[in-house]
Amino acid sequence: MTTMAERASRGSLRVVGAMLTDIGRVRSTNEDTVAFVAPAEGTPEEKVGFLALVADGMGGHAAGEVASALAADVVRREIYSSDEAPPRALLEAFESANRAILDYSAANPKTRGMGTTCTAILIRDDLLWLAHVGDSRAYLLRESALLQLSDDQTLHARLIRDGVMTPEQAQKSPGGNFILQALGARDKFEPTIFETGFKLRLGDTVLLCSDGLHNLVTSADILEIIRANNPQEACRELVEKALAAGGADNISVGVFRIVDAALARNRDQAATKPIRIIADDAVSPDPVETRCEG
Questions:
Q1: Residue 162 counted as domain residue
Q2: Which domain holds residue 260?
Q3: For residue 38, what pLDDT is reported?
Q4: Is the pLDDT at 272 greater than 50, yes or no?
């Protein structure tokens, strides 16, 4: 299912985009959750800005699906109830999501050990802030260059950054998918948070994706697909590319383009779809202004 987001920030720029998630060809369940919030013009939420995230759950027995959905719901609720500046609001939202997953695991022994990556962007006016844990990714496409905004928090990525291993050696070495940090893994964690907003330009495109995409689709192919298609079609093409490469994992992607506000204002908003979490009175997602696929 693909949905469209727009009217996401104040000023002359708006965000128009889409998200799509697919179970892939191998997994029996989809443990990914994607979600975005595009506040309507003139609402209090518009002052907060546009929020989008990808969460890739882990833990098996449907627990990964629960962890990623919890993260998406808690982060969304915390961001839009916070009066803090974006870096602090994102940090507190991630901390709350981490605690919610740990508390749920403690109360539901069958889900113990579950966790999730989470890569989120908050766009306000023409500035972007990133919050990130795990190995899902955020990219920026500007003109002909594709820049990875997030840092992979995996064993191999750390060894490469520390100069212990080359990228070529990493490709041939086992353990490349070992994640060093995840929401719900432990009490203490250190997310990557942009302390200063990244200045966006008209025509920029932001991509969010799980490793089910970036492990199978090259950066060159990602760049070509995004440049050749509108966000909705780009999401479909990227997922199809990952499926053609084997689809060994769940595949999630979001493509968001920065456009002139006057062009975005006349587009139709998509229907809202609430975040689905297994029955639990402590979690009651409000579907208004939230688009997602879990």
A1: no
A2: 3-150+181-293
A3: 93
A4: no
Say how far apart CA 232 and CA 250 lie, in whole Å.
18
Which is it for strands 137-142 and 115-116: parallel, antiparallel or unpaired?
unpaired
Please report the DSSP string for 70-110 in residue order.
HHHHHHHHHHTT--S-HHHHHHHHHHHHHHHHHHHHHH-GG
What pTM was computed for the model? 0.84
CB-CB contact of 208 with 231 (8 Å): no
Give the contacts of 166 (CB within 8 A, at least 6 positions apart).
160
Question: Contact at 8 Å (CB) between 41 and 49?
Answer: no
Does residue 284 form part of some domain? yes
Segment 164-212, tens digit of pLDDT: 566 655 565 655 566 789 999 999 999 999 999 999 999 999 999 999 9
What is the domain count for the chain? 1
Q: Which of 72-81, 164-173, 222-231 shows the lowest mean pLDDT across its residues?
A: 164-173
CATH number for the domain spanning 243: value is 3.60.40.10
Residue 91 contacts residue 78 (beta carbons within 8 Å): no
Q: For residue 175, tell me if it sits in a domain.
A: no
Q: Note whether residue 224 is domain-resident.
A: yes
